[in-house]
Design a protein that fits this description.
about 325 residues
Length: about 325
C-alpha cells in the first residue's frame, strides 16, 4: 500500500502542470465538484501545503540562510523587487482592469513558490540555495506582501494590510514552522519518512483543489477577459525568469545558481495569491482568476524551463 501511494505521489509530482490543468477543466465543466473549496476551507488547504513544505525542511536547510547570507539576500531582493515592479509595469502598460491588476500585483508581491525547489532539482540548479531562498522569502512574506500591496496597489484597490499580514501568518509562516519542528523531532523515524515520501503528492492534490475551487466559483469571468489575463500572466512570468537569470549573471554566480535564481524569481507562490485574492478581494473576482491562471501557468512554464536547463547542462557537461 505504501509503495502504491509513493508511486502515485511521484507521478503527481512529475505531472503537476497536466494534472492541475485537468482539474481546472473539470472544475469548469462540473463546478459543483469543487464548490466546497472556499473561505476557511481554502485557507486550511493552503496551510496543509505549507505544512508539507515545512516537514521537508531540515536544520541543514535552514543553515543555508546563515552559510550563504549574501546570495540569499540578493535572491530575496530580486524576488521582492523584480516581480512586484514587473507586475506594476504590466498593469500600467497593458492598462489592466482593476480586478486583473489586483490579482497580478498580488502574485508579484507573494513569496517564491514551493514547486520552484522541485524545478531547481530537475533543472540541475543549486537545490540548497533554492530551499534557502524559498524559506527566506516565506519568512518575510507576512511583512513584505502586505507592505508591497499597500504601496503598489493602494491607490487602485482597497488593501487591508493588517488583514493580509494575519492571513499570511496563519497559512504560511506558522505551518512551515510547525512542519520544521515535526521534522526535527521525528525526522529519524521510519514512519515519518514514509509520510514524507507522500507529501509532494499531497501538496499537488491540495494545490489542485485550490485551483478547482477558484475556477468553480469564478470560471465564467475568465471568458470575458481571459486573453488579457493570460497575456499579463505570461509576460510577468517570462520576464521574471529572464531577469532572475540576468541578476545571477550580474552577481557573478555559478550556472547552477543562475538557473535556480531564474526559477525562484519567476515562480511565485500563486496558490497563496489565489487564496488571498478570493478572501480579501471578493468584489473583484477577476483577481482570484488571474492568480489561479498564474498557479497553473507557473507550474507548466517552470517544468518547461527546468527541462530546458537540464538539456543545456547536459550539453555543456558533454562538451567539457
Amino acid at each position: 500500500m505504501w509503495n502504491l501511494c509513493r508511486c502515485l505521489s511521484a507521478f503527481l509530482s512529475a505531472h503537476t502542470p497536466g494534472f492541475i490543468t485537468c482539474v481546472a477543466l473539470i472544475a469548469w465543466w462540473q463546478p459543483g465538484l469543487f464548490t466546497w473549496v472556499h473561505g476557511d476551507t481554502q485557507a486550511g488547504i493552503l496551510g496543509c501545503i505549507m505544512l508539507a513544505m515545512g516537514m521537508s525542511l531540515t536544520p541543514a536547510d535552514w543553515r543555508v540562510l546563515a552559510q550563504r547570507p549574501l546570495d540569499v539576500l540578493l535572491g530575496v531582493c530580486a524576488q521582492y523587487g523584480i516581480m512586484p515592479l514587473l507586475a506594476l509595469g504590466l498593469v500600467w502598460g497593458l492598462r489592466l482592469p482593476e480586478g486583473i491588476a489586483a490579482g497580478l500585483l498580488l502574485v508579484g508581491c507573494c513569496p517564491g513558490g514551493v514547486s520552484s525547489n522541485i524545478m531547481s532539482l530537475l533543472g540541475r540548479g543549486d537545490v540548497a540555495y533554492s530551499v534557502g531562498m524559498t524559506a527566506a522569502s516565506t519568512l518575510l512574506a507576512p511583512l513584505m506582501t502586505p507592505l508591497l500591496m499597500l504601496l503598489l496597489a493602494g491607490e487602485r484597490v482597497d488593501v487591508q494590510a493588517f488583514e493580509l499580514f494575519r492571513s499570511i501568518l496563519w497559512v504560511t509562516l506558522l505551518p512551515v514552522a510547525l512542519g520544521t519542528l515535526l521534522n526535527s523531532l521525528f525526522g529519524q523515524r521510519a514512519a515519518f519518512r514514509h509520510v514524507g515520501a507522500l507529501l509532494p503528492g499531497v501538496a499537488v492534490l491540495a494545490l489542485a483543489c485550490i485551483v478547482g475551487g477558484v475556477v468553480a466559483a469564478q470560471g465564467a469571468h475568465f471568458f470575458t477577459q481571459g486573453a488579457l489575463i493570460f497575456v499579463g500572466v505570461f509576460l510577468h512570468n517570462g520576464l521574471g525568469y529572464a531577469l532572475g537569470y540576468l541578476t545571477g549573471v550580474l552577481g557573478r554566480m555559478s550556472s547552477p545558481k543562475c538557473r535556480t535564481l531564474s526559477l525562484e524569481v519567476g515562480m511565485q507562490n500563486a496558490g497563496l495569491a489565489t487564496v488571498l485574492a478570493a478572501r480579501h478581494f471578493p468584489l473583484l473576482p477577476e483577481a482570484a482568476v488571474a492568480a489561479a491562471v498564474s498557479c497553473v501557468w507557473h507550474s507548466l512554464s517552470g517544468t518547461l524551463l527546468a527541462s530546458f536547463f537540464r538539456r543545456r547542462a547536459r550539453r555543456v557537461s558533454r562538451s567539457q
